[in-house]
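Troubleshooting: if your tokenizer reports a length mismatch, compare against these two reference records.
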Amino acid sequence: MPYSHPWKISSLVAVMLKYAPDSILDVGAGEGMYGFLARHHLVNQAVWEGVGDASSLRIDAIEGYEPYITDNMRLAYDEIIVEDALTALGNIENHSYDLVLALDILEHFDRLDGLYFLQECRRVGRLTIIATPNHFIHQESAENPLENHRSIWRRREFKRLGAALLLPDDYSLIALFASDRLAKDFCVRWPWYERRRKLGAARRRLRLA
């Protein structure tokens, strides 16, 4: 299916806002939900809070199944590359994007291709966010074989592969991989950012009570 379950949205948007990338590549964009979320929140943060530069924000996508691409989706992305993800990533230079989103796509590869996909995402992006179900979900599509689920991944594998940070989530494994010093420093500081964010939210709830 060309969309993700919504449970992890708040965690992913929080990371994007704090990291404040100038360029994003959404790999396996589907219907473009995270492209819309990224553009909406990052532009608003730049305009109203002065964090980042809305005029320089670039959000591109890779989508392998052209029927998913609509006119509305094109509003979210500056460029949509319609091509197999492994092929498309291979044509992009190192560290071309501040942030690579690979959300609910890893499970569509077998193990070997999945490892190569992860390697390519990390090469292309300074910070890469991988999200994949934490249990196997059977899914097959005769119309679009790219939707078939072929693998399951574990926390210990992400740690072994060098994940800088694993985010808590009841339904997904969410891992951050950092490819430069700035991204690595961000991952080290994130638990402190998250504690401050949750504390601020708790205080706001108390004031409203």
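Reference record two:
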Amino acid sequence: MKKAYRVLLPLLFWTGVWQLAAAAVGKELLLPAPLAVGRRLLELCGTGAFWLTAGASLGRILLGLLAGVVLGTLLAGLTSALPWADCLLSPAVKVIRATPVASFILLVYLWVERGRVPGLISALMVLPVVWGNVTRGIVATGDQFISGGEQAAKIRGDFGADACEMEGGSIGQVCALNKIPFAVIRAISDHGDDEASVDFPAFASQAAQKSIELLKTALPLL
């Protein structure tokens, strides 16, 4: 009952707002009322052309989303592994992320064939989000304490990782299997080089204190 309430209440509220706004405008061309939209939608659902058009648009959007995910992931790996790629490509991705979608739609309509607009807009919306998440998320995890320059270089070369940790991956796997939301909070304790075994004990108490402060700040927000 509670779930139905949380779904129905916002739906009824915003439908009412829509109806009031349409009544205030008084011009169906500018803002049609919910009943007029629903009636017209039912009429269109009875035509084959509607479903063909809707299916084609949906297919283009899904392809655009897939392209955005793939390109965003590839760019994230590239900019994380190669400093020159990060220098050249990251500013462009950040500009795309900061630019309003409405602006892109207007520009794309001028430059691209109309049928390709939905897919391209979808890709441009998804690409920077995926890029940002994957870039910040490339952290290698394993069952070894990395304390050698050669080990660290191999991990970075194989995975494009900026850091390496233990335990977090196994905890995440258990939580994922049991469908439990989780977050792993880590602090960098050393450089993963030949001095790592010396750096870790000195850093442990400082890392613990920072983790406590972070938890105190984060928990009230959850």
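Descriptive notes for reference record two:
- The chain has a mean pLDDT of 83.
- DSSP finds nine helices and two strands in the chain.
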